[in-house]
Specification:
This protein has 3 helices and 7 strands. The chain has 106 residues and is of the alpha+beta class. It has one domain (3-85). Strands 1-7-6-5-4 form a 5-stranded antiparallel sheet. A two-stranded antiparallel ribbon has the order 2-3. β4 (43-49) and β5 form a beta hairpin. α1 crosses α2. It is extended, with a radius of gyration of 18 Å. It holds the Pfam family DUF6522. InterPro entries: DUF6522.
Length: 106
């Protein structure tokens, strides 16, 4: 996982702050566009606290349209980017069209 500067994410009193320049660039936005889209509710974020073997880690996921940036705060405070896993599509045995699915539900 690529690392990023510790200063990009700050955690204080369970409050997480992310550097706007870093987040904007990862989502392909300017800082101004990031702020505007956050105000419109178009930038979403999720914070996950690790358990078990991931205890002490926190993963932050940010989404803007089709863009996603994930970063993990390690137990020592270092940061690592966490790319989304790329899977392979599993073929469906008997695919249904949307019309078939709608008929099935009614």
């Amino acid at each position: 996982m690529p690392t990023i500067p510790k200063a990009a994410v700050a955690v204080e009193n369970a409050q997480i702050t992310v550097d706007a320049d870093v987040l904007a660039s990862r989502l392909g936005l300017t800082v101004q566009a990031l702020k505007e889209n956050m105000a419109k509710g178009l930038v979403m974020s999720v914070s996950e606290t690790g358990a078990g073997e991931d205890a002490g880690r926190t993963r932050l996921t940010f989404r803007y349209r089709a863009r996603v940036w994930r970063v993990v705060i390690q137990p020592d405070g270092s940061l690592s980017e966490d790319p989304l896993p790329v899977g392979t599509a599993t073929p469906i045995e008997d695919p249904l069209s949307l019309v078939d699915l709608a008929r099935r539900e009614s």
